[in-house]
């Protein structure tokens, strides 16, 4: 049996005392490329934020390779959902990617040439090197998404959390991104992606979690990605007429 | 210049620098209003501090008043969190309440408090040099100079130590939190520095000038640069410039120094707002005009590319075919010729090799919206500058 990369036990999260995630138990094995699916407002972003300690749960616990998140920060990289940052902030693409290195630097210490080199390599990887000095609001939506991917890559983590990386990107960029994600999996990393396009789940991912306030199901795509679970998650009588 | 004049300008300049630093981050966090709230609601803190210490320049008083500033921020956030009202409403609820408590406390104790509301709001820089600090009997300079100097040193130290943390938590609080840089800690740190600076400066320059010095230079700098370090530096330069020019303006008019500095800040912002290189009003209007011309140019080049027959390419026919007025046709023709994109031979216009290539690339861009291919064209053409 594979190691467990992320373990969530009895997790309940609330905004202003109104729970939006109820009693979630979840085990994510190492080395999977996993989709989290569920309708808008299902709590997908909230789940990721709670795992990463950005939100404090009212009950339950999270562990990364058996230890609390605070001890394992260096193992984890995060690409937030678009719109969670200030696009008019005076900063360049390169600078944003460099922020990925801040975690390993810790408090007070400043980035040096080494961090800059890593950031440039990550930009190269996502095909954004020509735009390195561009102010970020002057990039298109898909380009902004690539910058955030580069920022996660530069963290050189073991586990990647990505909140809707395909939002508003064109087909070419989507393929470019998924190829990078598949490469990460090949390198033994665990990748967790909030995903809205149900059509592409079987093609892109090997693991899936259905979420709607509660956890509906989690497991290998080939075993559990079916009409039954989709209906339970999305409420309506769902028919997947998409697979083989 | 006599020594009092130099001291006044020095105090005003130090206050300007001390305000510009937290001000830059307040502007970036879209929290300009909070500085207004802090500057008013510290009044009860100052009064209570004064009862206890009997000295307007005591560090304890500064601390007490700064705590009132933090309480303001906490109250505003608490009210906002109920979800019943927006942030600006919450600010509007909190600071008048605290401010009026301060006013009542002053009024009730008018006899034994040497303190009035006007002094707190407007300050009086002109008197700052008279309140001197003596160490072991020797005069070491005005008290306000020492107070604001100490605050500035602390602010600078914090800025250098936590620049990266301030940057990341302002830009992307989620990432900052996931990397272990507590955005809440940094938020309250910034609020504390803003409060301490406000209190430390109010005696010399008054609460209103503090707000102006925090917000106006940073807002002007924001219009000019897309680099955080340059923004900080520009905000500092603008602040100091307004402080010194405001002083001489007041000297010339024989008016209030704080009022003149505020006026200078207003003027400076107006000038930057109009003339800033890319975000300024005039630059934006110029760019829009250029873009119109360039769209016309492109339309014209496309027309040439699509039509081989001489008749369609005759200068005189342009007006009818593309349906432009004379002036516009001339501007477009001149622009195309200046860029070696067309040749005019016997009044017949044809594309040069460069023009042909440019047109193909431009069409590609418009169709695919793929930026990389036209990176090299950007300097010449506004149209492609997103
Ligand atoms: N800061 C907040 N304060 C209060 N309620 C919130 C906050 N953020 C999210 N919520 C609520 O929590 C629930 C879950 O939100 P969440 O952002 O996790 O959904 P999601 O599954 O990511 O949705 P989407 O697909 O739209 O991104 C929603 O009902 C939302 O309204
Ligand atoms: Mg979401």
TrEMBL record, chain A:
Gene Ontology MF terms in the entry: ATP binding
InterPro entries in the record: AAA+_ATPase (IPR003593), ABC_transporter-like_ATP-bd (IPR003439), ABC_transporter-like_CS (IPR017871), Metal_Ion_Import_ABC (IPR050153), P-loop_NTPase (IPR027417)
A Pfam family this chain is assigned to: ABC_tran
Keyword line: ATP-binding, Nucleotide-binding, Transport
The keyword Nucleotide-binding is assigned to this record: yes
Residue span(s) of domain ABC transporter: 6-238
Family to which this protein belongs: Belongs to the ABC transporter superfamily.
Protein name listed in UniProt: Manganese/zinc/iron transport system ATP-binding protein
Organism field: Meridianimaribacter flavus
From TrEMBL, chain B:
Origin organism lineage: Bacteria, Pseudomonadati, Bacteroidota, Flavobacteriia, Flavobacteriales
Location(s) in or outside the cell: Cell membrane
SUPFAM superfamilies: ABC transporter involved in vitamin B12 uptake, BtuC (SSF81345)
InterPro entries the record matches: ABC_BtuC-like, ABC_TroCD
Signal peptide feature range: none
Regions crossing the membrane: 6-28, 37-54, 60-77, 89-107, 144-163, 170-190, 202-224, 231-250, 256-276
Membrane topology: Multi-pass membrane protein
Pfam family, one: ABC-3
Name used for this protein in its record: Manganese/zinc/iron transport system permease protein
Main location per the UniProt record: membrane
Keywords of the record: Cell membrane, Membrane, Transmembrane, Transmembrane helix, Transport
Sequence similarity: Belongs to the ABC-3 integral membrane protein family.
């Amino acid at each position: 049996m594979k190691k467990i990369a992320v373990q969530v036990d009895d997790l309940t999260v609330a905004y202003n005392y109104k729970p939006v995630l109820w009693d979630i138990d979840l085990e994510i094995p190492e080395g999977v490329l996993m989709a989290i699916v569920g309708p808008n407002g299902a709590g997908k972003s909230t789940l990721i934020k709670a795992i990463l300690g950005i939100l404090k749960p009212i009950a339950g616990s999270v562990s990364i390779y058996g230890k609390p998140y605070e001890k394992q920060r260096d193992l984890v990289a995060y690409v937030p959902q678009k719109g969670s940052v200030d696009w008019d902030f005076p900063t360049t693409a390169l600078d944003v990617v460099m922020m990925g290195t801040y975690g390993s630097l810790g408090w007070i210490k400043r980035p040096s040439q080494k961090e800059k080199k890593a950031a440039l390599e990550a930009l190269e990887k996502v095909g954004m090197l020509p735009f390195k000095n561009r102010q970020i609001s002057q990039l298109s939506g898909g380009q902004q998404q690539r910058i955030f991917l580069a920022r996660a890559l530069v963290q050189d983590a073991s586990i990647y959390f990505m909140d809707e990386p395909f939002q508003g990107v064109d087909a070419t960029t989507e393929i470019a991104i998924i190829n990078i994600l598949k490469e990460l999996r090949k390198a033994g990393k665990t990748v967790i992606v909030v995903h809205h396009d149900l059509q592409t789940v079987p093609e892109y991912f090997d693991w899936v979690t259905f979420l709607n306030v509660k956890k509906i199901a989690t497991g290998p795509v080939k075993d559990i990605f079916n009409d039954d679970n989709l209906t339970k998650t999305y409420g309506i009588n769902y028919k997947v007429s998409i697979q083989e | 210049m006599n020594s009092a004049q130099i001291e006044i300008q020095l105090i005003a300049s130090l206050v300007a620098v001390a305000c510009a630093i937290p001000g830059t981050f307040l502007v970036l966090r879209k929290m300009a209003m909070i500085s207004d709230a802090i500057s008013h609601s510290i009044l009860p803190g100052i009064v209570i501090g004064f009862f206890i210490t009997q000295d307007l320049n005591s560090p304890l008083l500064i601390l007490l008043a700064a705590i009132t500033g933090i309480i303001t921020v906490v109250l505003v956030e608490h009210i906002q969190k109920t979800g019943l009202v927006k942030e600006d409403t919450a600010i509007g609820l909190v600071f008048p309440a605290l401010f009026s408590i301060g006013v009542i406390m002053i009024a009730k104790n008018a006899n034994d408090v040497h303190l009035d509301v006007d002094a707190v709001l407007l300050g009086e820089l002109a008197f700052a040099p008279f309140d001197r600090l003596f160490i072991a009997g020797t005069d070491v300079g005005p008290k306000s100079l020492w107070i604001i100097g100490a605050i500035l040193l602390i602010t600078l130290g914090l800025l250098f130590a936590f620049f990266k943390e301030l940057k990341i938590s302002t830009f992307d609080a989620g990432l900052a939190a996931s990397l272990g840089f507590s955005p809440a800690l940094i938020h309250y740190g910034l609020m504390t520095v803003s409060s301490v600076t406000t209190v430390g400066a109010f005696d010399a320059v008054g609460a209103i000038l503090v707000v102006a010095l925090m917000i106006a230079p940073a807002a002007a700098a924001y219009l000019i640069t897309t680099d955080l370090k340059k923004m900080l530096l520009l905000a500092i330069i603008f602040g100091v410039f307004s402080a010194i020019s405001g002083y001489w303006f007041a000297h010339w008019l024989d008016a209030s120094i704080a009022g003149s500095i505020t006026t200078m800040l207003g003027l400076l912002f107006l000038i930057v707002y109009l003339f800033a290189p890319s975000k300024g009003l005039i630059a934006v209007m110029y760019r829009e005009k250029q873009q119109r011309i360039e769209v016309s140019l492109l339309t014209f080049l496309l027309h040439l590319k699509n039509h081989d027959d001489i008749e369609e390419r005759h200068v005189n026919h342009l007006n009818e075919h593309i349906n432009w007025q004379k002036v516009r046709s001339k501007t477009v023709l001149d622009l195309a010729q200046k860029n070696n994109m067309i040749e005019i031979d016997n009044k017949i216009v044809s594309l040069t090799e460069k023009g042909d290539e440019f047109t193909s690339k431009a069409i590609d861009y418009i169709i695919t919206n793929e930026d990389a291919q036209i990176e090299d064209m950007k300097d010449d053409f506004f149209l492609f500058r997103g």
